[in-house]
Amino acid sequence: MSTALPTIPPDNPNRNLTLGQPDNLPHLGLVGDTYTITVTGEQTDGRFCVVDMHIPPGGGPPPHRHDFEETFILLEGEMEATFRGKKSIVRAGDTLNIPANAPHQFHNTSTGSVRMLCICSPAGQDKFFMEVGVPVATRTTPPPKLGEKEQAVFIEKVKRLAPKYRTELLKEA
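^ that's the sequence the OP posted. Answer follows.
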């Protein structure tokens, strides 16, 4: 019986170091929040992506679920997270891991902004945000306010694209 350990694959010289610097990253306005893609799925061979999220008071996405793991590391502020119907308060320094397919939502119920890193594995959420978000100038620039008609068009676009990115919008988390 062999006790040999599995070997580590050789280095892939076609993959490069990723250095995300705020001045050279895409900043996207989405659902009132601003998301900055710091590491794309293309840069990780599809293994994961990283999104720096700025969520103003009252911000956060509607209830949803998706077929990939999602980890949030809260850097600044405090927010309410709903996971399978149970609400929790999450504070700076806390880490949440949302298992694939689980209903969830996060909402900034505080009076200050929240900053958190979101790691999705495998990648794909970065492409979804790039497709539905609106480019903005900086990591904290709020997205433009949408009128009623523009909001309806945006919601329809999200509903149409969500299945492509293994995401489902829900009535409750």
